[in-house]
Structure formats: structure tokens, C-alpha cells
Amino acid sequence: MSINDEKVKLPINANPIVVHEPRFNQGGQADYYSFARDTIQNGTAEATIYNSKKLEDVVHEMGLKIKQHEENIKFLKTQKNGLDNSILDMQVALGKYQTESESGPENEELSHVLSEQETIEQILRYEKSAAGIWCQLKTRHGTQASHLPLTKDVLGIVAMLGKVDDDNLSRLLSDYLGLETMLAIVCKTYDGIKALETYDKEGYINKTSGFHGLGSSIGRSLDGRFLVICVENLRPYGGEFIADDPQRRLDILKPRLPNGESPPGFLGFAVNMVSIDSVNLYCATSSGYGLRETLFYNLFSRLHVYRTRADMLQALPCIRDGAISLDGGIIKHNNVFVLGKREVDLKFPKSFAKSNLPQDYFEIERQIKEMKWKKERTVEDMQREQALLDHARFNFGIKKEEYLKFLAQNSSYTRQLQAGGERLTPIS
What we know:
The chain has 428 residues and is an alpha+beta fold. The protein contains 13 helices and ten strands. The strands form three sheets. The chain has a five-stranded mixed β-sheet. Strands 1-3-4 form a three-stranded mixed β-sheet. It has a two-stranded antiparallel sheet with strand order 2-6. The two termini are 46 Å apart.
């Protein structure tokens, strides 16, 4: 039997074979390399696109999780700050600062309660001061003294224009201001200041007019310099007031340490711890400003009040305009520390703290405890969210690196394939 006579048997289940014919170049020759390269590239491109899209989706989803954790932490921080501010406001409103018995032995020596009359008597000891002459005039003539041409523009003396609930705090504030400032005369306008002292043609003081003449007329000659403050020329506080506060206390932003926490032992701002008579709360100036946002804001600015020196020193990073502590520490606004024994014999009159306490005192105490509890829970939630955020960022970094490495590898492979095609393409 010859070869031609043999019958070739095909498998019954033979699969059909798809044959792609090669392309031909311009010379009519088959371009087998281009044919093989195109086949490989088509399959590689599809796999690359699929894997690239899959990795991209994973990275995008992980990025969204990171953003969600960041937003959660931001919300919790805002909630915590709101609780901190509410707690501080309530503590200040309830007089959460140390009482006289908690301030040390110095307080026991000066534990007597100061009334307005007692403060006047202390000022009168400075017989040759402008403040002493003014108080003598008020004592003799009462309310009529305010209607005299010389003194009708005088609002009073710094030491008499405010009251402080706590005797120890009163002494600390007067110590911070100093005797000269406590005895300063306060006028509404500059015209009132000009009336207090006049000069002759040579520039010498006229001893027969102004406060000098007034002192001579009552047997108290004015000796030495004295301070006079013009309220109308003071730059007033430009912020908001605490809502529904009959004392119009200033709504000043609470201090924060660099870590965002409230400084321990912070009790409030001195400017808000001074009580002011209703007559001076409004329209003390022609512009309608009261004494708190003008006189006392310029005297104290944002002076902090702390429980102890240790608390005050710990809060140094957030102290800008000075601070005092209830155990006698004083830092001036220019970061000057005041040391040594305190010898203060002039203080603000005492107001009655009980009358300023809200009627629902114990209810507010309960609310403070509840807010502190909520704050603790919020801090715990923040810690959990931070741990989740750190974990998500770690995983994101790994997956992102994997994605970029994948893109780099496939880009390198494509360049190599294209370069190899240029070298191996047959010459027609």
C-alpha cells in the first residue's frame, strides 16, 4: 500500500482551530514578527487594564475611608471644644474659684469684708492725692459734687468703679494694677481732663484752678503727679457679649494650650470678674459704650485668672496679656513676673456673690457633671477614631505603593516590547 492510499483518521472530538493569517509587508512578504507581537500585546493590554482598574478602585475606596475617619475626628473635636466652653462658662458663673479660706495665711490676716465706705476711707488716707481730694469732695457734698463745673465730667476713681465678689481676688486685682492706677481719676471726655489742671503762659501749673485749687480750698494741697483716664479715647472691646448676661460680660474666646486642651486651673478672665453698677454698664461714653468694654478691658485686657501658680506657669504658652493666681502669682502683660511679699491696703469694694448665683445652682452643678461625663466619652471616641485612621493610612500607603509599582512595571514592559519590535522588524 502506498502512502497516498493511507487514510488519515481525525479525532471525533477535535476542536476547531482558528488560524489568523499573517499580514504582509509592502514587498509582499509575510510579517511574522508583527503578527506575533500584536497577538501578545492585545492579551497583555486587556489584563493590564483589568488589574489596574481593580487596584485603582481599592485605593480609591481606602482613601474614602481615611476621609471619613478624618471628618469624624473633626466633628468630635468640635463637640469636645463646645463642651469645654460650656463647662468653663458654668464654672465661672457659679464662682468656681477658691474662697478666702483656701487662699492661705495671708488671706486670714485680711479677711475682713470691704464695703464701699471702707474703700473710701482707705482712699482718704492718701490726703494729698487727687483721688483723696475727690473722695473728700464727695463725702462733703454728696451727689452735688458731680454737678460742679470742675467735676461734672468725672465718672469716679478706678477703685470705686468696680466691685469684686471675693476679697482675695479683689486684693490680687488691685495688686496687679498697682496703687497709682487704682487711684486714677476716670473722665468721660478729654475736655474733662483739661478742666482738672490748667497752666499759665510759661507752662507752669496754675495752683488756683482745677484739682489744685479744689484741694487748697478744702485744706488738702495736691502733691505729685496723678493719673487721669479718658474713657472716650479708649479703644473698646470689639467682640460680642455673653448672651442674656445682665452684667454684659465679654464673650472672649477661652485659652487653649498647643495641644488644643484647656489649661488646668483656668477660672476665667479678670475683666469679667469685676461687677459694675448698672448706671455704668451702658452709655458711659457718647458712643454708647459701657465701662466693662472700655475702662476695665483696657486695664485688664485678657488677663487670665488661675487657681495656683503651678497652673499659671503650666499655661504660659497661651498667656498673652498677663495672668494672676489665687495664691498670689502675678505675670504682667509683657511677661514680667512680679515677686515678693504683697502689701495691699486698697482694694475694690466687695459685692455679694450669693446675689449673683443663679437660682438653679444645684441643677447647673448637675449639668456640669453630665457635661464632663460626655466629654470623657467624646475623648474616648476620638482615641478610637484616631487608631482607625492610623490603621487606614498604613494600609493605604501599602496599597498605593503596590498600585504605583504595578503601573511602573507594565509601563516598562510596554516600552521594551515596542523597542524590541523596532529592532527585529524584517527589512522588506
